[in-house]
Amino acid sequence: MMEKIHKKIGYEDVWASIHELSQRQKETDRQLKETDRQLKETDKHLKEKFSELKEYVGGIARNNGDVAESYFYETIADTMKIGELDFDIIEKNVKRMNRRQNIRGEYDIILINSESIAIVEIKYKLHPGDIEKIVNKKIPVFKKLFPEKKDFKLYIAVAGLSVPDDSKKLAFKHGFFVLTQGGGKLNLEHDYIKIY
User: Fold this and answer.
1) Strand partners, 188
2) Beta-carbon neighbour count of residue 177 at 10 Å?
């Protein structure tokens, strides 16, 4: 038969165990603080890198947009025409603000003659959302910002170095001219043209 051995735990043993647990807890706390510090450092580093990447990608997008705007402006300025419409004045990057109505607008190109205005909105790659923004925001805001042109016929053209079919179809649905680049010249397409 085996004998049971009972060890009596004394006061010092209990305090030694408590002291050991306390030391382990302090070490765990120290390790957690170090881990937290490292995580914060890593998070800061990742935020910095993400910010740099965002700036870099934004720079590429701006450059692409600048290339598209420059191409279409120079090409349109050479002829001062969109389709059969002849214009006398061309302006680019037109900004206007009405403080009282708290509205502002920016237009890539505006062409003007004695009775008509054409707004040309340019994108590197034209998306359907760009067309919806023109219809729902840019056209109504233009009419409020340029009340002196209220009797003018308003035409809309969209231009892009890349114009996917879904964007083109939506532009046609709204009666826009669609300008693209092809073979070193400006291509103009439309279904029907709406006067806004």
Assistant:
1) 179
2) 21
Mean pLDDT of 85-99: 96
pTM of the model: 0.68
Minimum mean pLDDT range among 63-67, 105-109, 185-189: 63-67
Name the pairing type of β-strands 153-162 and 116-125: parallel
Task: Say if CB 179 and CB 158 are below 8 A apart.
Answer: yes
As a whole number, the mean pLDDT across the chain is 86
CB neighbourhood size of 80 (10 A):
14
Question: Do 77 and 90 form a contact (C-beta atoms < 8 A)?
Answer: yes
* pLDDT recorded at residue 137: 95
Q: Cβ–Cβ contacts within 10 Å for residue 1, how many?
A: 3
Cα–Cα dist 29/88, whole Å = 76
User: Domain boundaries in the chain?
Assistant: 10-196
- Give the distance, in angstroms, between the CA of residue 142 and the centroid of all CA atoms in the same chain: 21
- Does the domain spanning 10-196 belong to CATH 3.40.1350.10? yes
- Tokens 């070193």 correspond to what residue? 184
Rounded CA gap, 83 and 172, in Å?
14
How much of the chain is in helix, strand and coil states, percent to nearest 5? 50, 30, 20
Asked whether residue 60 carries a pLDDT value surpassing 60, the answer given is: no
For residue 53, is pLDDT > 70?
no
